[in-house]
Amino acid sequence: MLRTHTCGELSLKDVNQEVVLCGWVQRVRDKGGMIWLDLRDRYGLTQLLFEEGKTPAEVLDIARSLGREFVISAKGAVIERLSKNDKIATGDIEIRVTKLQILNAAKLPPFLIEDETDGGDDIRMKYRYLDLRRNAVRKNLQLRHQVARHTRAYLDNLDFIEVETPVLIKSTPEGARDFVVPSRMNPGEFYALPQSPQTFKQLLMVGGFDRYYQIVKCFRDEDLRADRQPEFTQIDCEMSFVTQEDILNTFEGLIRSLFKEVKGITLDEVPRMTYADAMRLYGSDKPDTRFAMQFVELKGQEQDLTSGKGFGVFDNAGMVVGIAAPGCAEYTRKQVDELTEWMKRPQIGSKGLVYVRYNTDGSVKSSVDKFYSEEDLKKWIVAFDAKPGDLILLVADNADKARKQLNELRLEMGSRLGLRNPDDYKVLWVLDFPLLEFGEAENRWFAMHHPFTSPKPEDIDLLDTNLGQVRANAYDMVINGVEVGGGSVRIFAKELQQKMFEILGFSAEEAQEQFGFLMNAFEFGAPPHAGIAFGFDRLCSIFGGADSIRDFIAFPKNNSGRDVMIDSPSHISDGQLKELSIRVDQA
Amino acid sequence: MLRTHTCGELSLKDVNQEVVLCGWVQRVRDKGGMIWLDLRDRYGLTQLLFEEGKTPAEVLDIARSLGREFVISAKGAVIERLSKNDKIATGDIEIRVTKLQILNAAKLPPFLIEDETDGGDDIRMKYRYLDLRRNAVRKNLQLRHQVARHTRAYLDNLDFIEVETPVLIKSTPEGARDFVVPSRMNPGEFYALPQSPQTFKQLLMVGGFDRYYQIVKCFRDEDLRADRQPEFTQIDCEMSFVTQEDILNTFEGLIRSLFKEVKGITLDEVPRMTYADAMRLYGSDKPDTRFAMQFVELKGQEQDLTSGKGFGVFDNAGMVVGIAAPGCAEYTRKQVDELTEWMKRPQIGSKGLVYVRYNTDGSVKSSVDKFYSEEDLKKWIVAFDAKPGDLILLVADNADKARKQLNELRLEMGSRLGLRNPDDYKVLWVLDFPLLEFGEAENRWFAMHHPFTSPKPEDIDLLDTNLGQVRANAYDMVINGVEVGGGSVRIFAKELQQKMFEILGFSAEEAQEQFGFLMNAFEFGAPPHAGIAFGFDRLCSIFGGADSIRDFIAFPKNNSGRDVMIDSPSHISDGQLKELSIRVDQA
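The joint structure predicted for all components is written out below.
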């Protein structure tokens, strides 16, 4: 090794020892007679000391020639510092350097390699290898390694076996868009990159593997929104001879173990909520349960406390639903107007926002006083179980739209009221998803999870009568309002699988061509099985208390799917295209 | 869980316990009044017992309806067996079944799910999910999991950090052919799949990560020979602030640890051999050192014991080189002729084979007696340090060809003499590879390892004078004649890297376009670094004592790069092609 120690490990117990350190020059303070230099590596910072008269002249000369980010090797004795720094692990000591070597010079980096950098997103992506030197980014990747390590430890311990499934597979029209790979040896044919190893893990169950996992790259050629990556990583899992309950317990165990090992947090028991309740109480299938502010329907399936008073907006709406924002009764008119405008933006599309102030003095004031008596409003307050000081905010629309809008408002109010602390973790299972959802544009049914998801046995008859009512044995894990994982009990009988493909609009031939191998496999003794997959990048970002997954990926792509560091994708040669039997056709 | 136990864990201590097992019907023996059924899962076999008069009639009916590979659930009490089977872990007990349920029926599988199967390669690949049920295949994948697990444990323990590098990268003309992926969002542009994460791991070193590893899928679009796969897995590693010696020690440690943990074998210290010696003594850069039979050059750089005696074949050859096959002096003329023919096949291309029998009675007999006196031949015997009973086999050609041919003969003789026991492991480091090799066809120099490999510092001046003589700080690990890993100390100075690209025929512009990001990175403080990558599939096959890597991959492709199970690659729709701005062009 070119070094005897790292820059993070020396302390008073090492005083007088001769050491060699290697690393990057973080900063140099030249006070004339004395020079201090902070040397940095992955493990920490160590201060180097150069002193006129004591340090050899040629070493001083080299020290004075160093710039930021030079890579150096320094030899010297560990000494106790006069003025100690208790902010860093090595703050009690410094190195009196006797030998100094420049291993590699460095041009001035285009942004500061500090916790607080002056580099914008674009420049940091272009020079990602410099960004990786920053503590923040390095710690994110170290966290990622820890999450992976403890995931494997937990699953290995339960007799799961990690099996690698292929990356070059087959394109299927169901689901998101595939990335494809032209085959040179099979001209005119293409592989596809997997959106998930779904069918392969099911085949592993048919193959008797019984408990499988894989931390695996997956690919989706979707239009990228902020924080979506064309390649992403999943913790992919499947089990045989289990019920939904076994999956929930096993993977609640995984998450509890990760919180314990990685964050030192002992989780409460993970509550469970049906999809129907989640939509009713939060207007979302991934509610943020760090705070309550549950929906109350003044007009809905259960009751109608709004109609017949002459307020057309409510009278004509399918649903009037609201939240009670605690302590917000004192919002000014301006604040309420601003909220109303926020709700009316096209991204949310509310037609308006009705408020009821429940003042601390017990009085009530509303924007619809004209239509509703104080007695009416008091009934609303009772329905909300509101407290003096609450501000009730109401939207009216058809049920789907009203819930969607109010979900946004609830999250916004949660943020404004500081109820969404990233260090507070609320984990939730959402259960009993609908099996199918109707695509208005395509005028057909789609699988809400995927076509291999089993309907609830008690709902199977509904497949012939009321597709929209069929519930699936499907489940999502939600942390702080983010879906981190999801899965389902799978179909394992050929007939039911065929029926599902039929419902999804596959002809028998199409189903056979695309998924024949799986349906054939079901005929040779497929066990009951179920599984789950976690979004690994997302899980890491939540453990890191961050919003963006990009910070937890070593070399992410931008929103155009481009790696600006290596400048990819790029053109390839005509020779390559010819070998692959394809032509570019930018019509 | 649908079961209380697996089929591999019950024993006498569980007698009288009521259990539920799930699994596949391995076989049924119906002796009229008694039926025995072997139930199989991933963990083992357990015998189920059904008895006329004791077992409920409806259970007997179901039992009689079962076929091979039916998936069943059986409930009953554990009882001691009358006739025990000490070949299986559960051989002392059986289950007296009281409840039996068919979870899924099975068609008769197209081949026997037994250790010795009647299924050929093709049918087993098509029904890989059934092949996976066989012990042999399952154990290979379990071994693979163990090798991965212990690799991670060893490296984690040394502060290595696993970092995922991208799969959608950029095509580069150097090296093997890339698989490419058309970018929909960047029409006319393509990603490439990585042949290895080489440049990314070097950038991680520039980013200060210092000790990196990854067990990672890599891709090469090469014409497939037996036992090459278009996608394969590497254990990819890189370290900063190290010398070659540190890499050799760290990864010798990895291999020793794997042998210990996975195989229970304590390895001897791993010997080291230069490339030059490997070629001289074995005619190969990956010698099988389980046996000696080293080459002796009768005519070569050191000596010439053959010329001037009127034997034109030897006189005109650049090299006469041979091996002494122990105990083979008694080979019949027919056997020697057969060996000669074997050597003259086009795959080897020898012009002939000269033999010298050193009989046990001390007499000498050769196919070139006519030209060489007994005294001449005795000198050869001394040169070989041959023992009575040895058969010396000689080839003559230019040095490269002669060595290549003799390498094949040596391995063949090793096999024939039973000297290549798969349970005997000899690990070897081969060092000091040439930096460059000349491509006659292309009339230019190629990097023997890759363009990022550092020349030996003492050979750097030769870059200007004698490219063929420059040795690299590159190393391979060889086990039993198979290269399992290789790596090098890397170039970390921009100027040297530029010079390498120049030598390899890149124009300055091409080098900048393809690898500019790396050379730029070298300007911002790149540390000295070095690394290695192991072929994970190959390593697993060696640990499994097998020749083929295919048996250690869950879903391998055939020699045309085709997955015959899912029938991939396949055609994609015109709509997909259009979205990707490409057209198939099978001109």
